[in-house]
What does this fold into?
Amino acid sequence: MADKKTGTSRPSFTDLVPDLTGESNWQLWKKNLRIYLNSQDRSYWGILTGKDKRPEDLPGTPVDLDDADFDNTASIADSTTSAASTAGAKPPSASAIKARTKLQDEWDDKDCIILAFLALAVEPNMSTYVTEGFTSAMVYQELKDLCEANISNNTSAKAIKWINWKYKPGVKPEEFVRK
It folds into this structure.
């Protein structure tokens, strides 16, 4: 799609980010996904990797239990303060609650956008991991664990094979090296 101001063409998401097929293209997929997400909004990568968490509820604010499983706050225990711990605390003002809710809604909107990008960027056999995650950070962590564990296992197997590699008498050195 050409940029109206400069007349240059910007690559689309699917042009830049290949479908994730597994550990074989994990590193390329991760690098290109990061480039694309940062080109859209610098906060997307931090949300995806879990570094930028959803803003917590203010202490003393009633918690919507339906959202307790969904959000990606530091911990649910932190955001669901008990009556005992807030007994002496002053309840947050309506404007503070409104401001915090706005920040949470903005974070939720960004997370939904990132989840949509993830759904576009995986092979059909990997889409289960996208549909089962509540947040983009959960999905990304699941994909990362799956792909990087397989990379580690392959690397370990190759290292063990190399360590156990022995020269057999009677074999030309050139043949030994080619194997």
